[in-house]
Amino acid sequence: MGDAQMAEFGAAAPYLRKSDKERLEAQTRPFDLRTECFVPDEKEEFIKAKVTSREGGMVTVQTENGKTVTVRETEVHQQNPPKFDKIEDMAMLTFLHEPAVLFNLKERYAAWMIYTYSGLFCVTVNPYKWLPVYNAEVVAAYRGKKRSEAPPHIFSISDNAYQYMLTDRENQSTVNTKRVIQYFASIAAIGDRKKEPANTSKGTLEDQIIQANPALEAFGNAKTLRNDNSSRFGKFIRIHFGATGKLASADIETSYESHLLEKSRVIFQLKAERNYHIFYQILSNKKPELLDLLLVTNNPYDYNYVSQGEVTVASIDDSEELMATDSAFDVLGFTPEEKVGVYKLTGAIMHYGNMKFKQKQREEQAEPDGTEDADKSAYLMGLNSADLVKGLCHPRVKVGNEYVTKGQNVQQVYYSIGALAKSVYEKMFSWMVVRINNSLETKQPRQYFIGVLDIAGFEIFDVSMLQQDKRRWEQRHVSKDSPKTQG
What we know:
Residues 32-81 form the Myosin N-terminal SH3-like domain. The protein is of the alpha+beta class. It contains 16 helices and 17 strands. The strands form 6 sheets. It has a 5-stranded antiparallel β-sheet with strand order 4-3-2-1-5, with no helix packed on it. It has a 4-stranded mixed β-sheet with strand order 8-17-11-12. Strands 6-7 form a two-stranded antiparallel ribbon.
């Protein structure tokens, strides 16, 4: 597919495939297969070089930065001819090894070609910027094409799954979320919009499927050490189709084991991380009436649970994201009361983190050190403030077949507040999943589905997870005289 054929991809073309000019230049570039190689490098991991001599199992090379080094023969990896530069499927490389893969991904990434095939897999490198490769023109260009007939793209993977479903009459699955859902919703709904009755209270089914993701991401994604928008939960989305391939409905797996929300983040974050996006969206002051409703300021540092780490992210506009979240609720058919309820619970959690308690004189029993934040959180939860404080300081516990009231010291009360905040957030999130599923259930006949798996974000650290857990525990519990350290 040359420049002429790539025209149908519009502005996305240079981000998807090399130009004819670049391919011609690569084919005429001088190259010596016997000497061109990769060798290990302390700074770059691997570096391009040329062999100058070989002797006794050792190879002397001159690297592209002008250094002469001698390495073992087993550490020398042959380069691929220039015609393979920025190759779209790395399984086609003549010499397939680690440096060849890394350099190919690096060179494609430098040209903002973020999608690359590796056999059956599609490798994506996060550009951390918007690229014009997801618009309707690109969707149409990939529709109905075999994988070999178009450049690497998540849309190609999606369309192949869709076509296989129609021809093989079997359910399909894929691992990605946002763009996959966008593609399925778009192609399966083409031609059907005019047949569907108008509904002014909420969006079309394809709009709802697309908007389910940002709604859940606001409450389930957060900034971590390595990713500004890391998914802190896992979900399995089924997109259901009728016998002819028409979009029928969708659902999100709702079992507890499925989404595994990271609850600890609600009350504790590392210094370089953030709490869930929704807190900062609310505090962005994009909707001042929301601040008034929740009895909060627009300063995240006023709230302990959301200010232990970062409060802003350079790549995220919390103001715009709030409007996107609010709009997603509308498209999904949330009532005004449901939206307000979700926002109120979120606001109550912020006030939970500011509640203070002290020890009674000559007793270990805790008592409130002011009730302002308890009053605010109780109001937002629809509770009586005195009952909330009593439940924290003097909880009723079941002993045998009877309930008894027990006293709690300050430390125990802070633990209880943290547990309450995490439980409220988890149950709110689970309710949202069920509510979204209700919106996506159309009662239309459905025969097949394509499953989209979105696993919780994982990261590779220099420090092991066991060491991280130890540090988190120490940060939470070693300093016992401050409510900010409670878990």
